[in-house]
Amino acid sequence: KLKKFDDDFLWGASISAFQAEGASTKDGKGLSIQDVKKISEKYSDFSVAADFYNNYKEDIALLKEMGLSSFRFSISWTRIIPDGDGEINKKGIIFYHNLIDELKKNGIEPIVTIYHFDLPFSLQQKGGWSNRDMIVKAFLKYSKVLFNEYAKKVKYWLTINEQNVMIMIGSKMKFLNGGDKKFNQNELYNQSHNMFIAQALVMEEMHNNFPNCLIAPALNIVSIYPNSNKPQDYLAAMNASVMRNWYYLDAIVRGEYNPIMYKYLEDNNFLPDFRKGDYEILKKAKPDFIAFNYYTSATVKSEINNFIEVEELIDQQRLFDVPGMFSYCENPNLEKTEYGWDIDSTGFRVTMREMYERYRLPLMITENGLGHSEQLNENNTVDDDYRIQYYEKHLNELRKCISEGIKIISYNAWTAIDIVSSHQGFSKRYGFIYVDRTEKDLKEMKRYPKKSFYWYKEYIKKIKY
Ligand code: BGP
């Protein structure tokens, strides 16, 4: 027997600033690493994106029509502080006041991500996340500006989007924390440590001064399966889970370095530069809930693969081989999306259960969805039945988790409107609402609800009663 969703359960959808807003140099906005990185000819850049900056009122009207009660978006650091740690840009401050006010006026709870892949370019030039003194100070300053401005209106806050993805693929892909830079493992684990410290100080600031708000990290957490019932493969899956999931959550929630991860870092000379007092900083700060993004699960084995990595084929959802720990492999039991991501709704349930059993904190889903290339049909809509099926299956598992007593606050689908994919252009669409543009042709950027829009609307309505 399945339980009902609580009345105050927040039904939402997500976007991020650099992928949706556009207006990348308008009204005083400074450049972020996303604005300056080289983008393959095939794909559009982020300069116009979905023009959310100019269109947010119309978009919010549609979200209201869909029946959403929450909307998760990120604030662009360089719209607020153009060079990352200097002067504040009034127009940027006003934009987000207007956006938040518009959401509240329409009965939609804002869920704000402080930092989603768009590091200020001038901070990257000063060393970015590798320059501890600079970045910790800058991140804290930026967060304080946001809290002072918006904490009265915004209850739910998210610190850093997908720290684990940025660190895990930071040596393979060039698009996340360094713009066009790839890092070595040493540098990455230092960056990760600096993110832990910066994030802990920001959570502490919130708890000390804004007790009515709640704050959490937003990692990409997934279940990881062994490829066979060989004990070595089971161990490999545990290793992969430590490296992808628990190292991050143990540090953020418990204020500890996971011991298996610590040993791995030590053995490979990747230990970060700990400073005196770091553990106290980590211990003091605890998130109020855990936010996480989930698209797909992963499967691993113990034997080493001998494949050659081609950057074009690398994807943020895939695991890579870590010799001595695990090797990535395909899972033949799962269907795939058009873009090759495994569809695994049971894995969604496994993920929530694992997290709740480990940490006993309420959960919030900040991203879950399916990317597909799409075009308007003759009825000016998109029959995205594949997306509806994806959501139906995942929400069913979510409901099972709630019935089993796992506390879940909110579900935010990725994405509300079509936006630019993080590294595969505008053709890879996730929205409930179609945005009429192609990779390079901006057209009028009109909005058209897809079939999934009406489906989600009905789902939210029915499930409430
Ligand atoms: C997550 C990011 C999002 C989003 C999503 C889909 O990793 O937090 O920003 O992009 O994945 O990925 P993609 O756009 O590459 O398909």
From TrEMBL:
GO cellular component, one term: cytosol
GO terms of biological process kind: carbohydrate catabolic process
Entry's family note: Belongs to the glycosyl hydrolase 1 family.
Pfam families according to UniProt: Glyco_hydro_1
Coiled-coil region list: none
Mitochondrion in keyword set: no
Protein name (record): Beta-glucosidase/alpha xylosidase
Organism the protein comes from: Mesoplasma florum (strain ATCC 33453 / NBRC 100688 / NCTC 11704 / L1) (Acholeplasma florum)
Superkingdom of this protein's organism: Bacteria
Keyword entries, A-Z: Glycosidase, Hydrolase
GO molecular function, one term: beta-glucosidase activity
KW Lipid biosynthesis (keyword) present: no
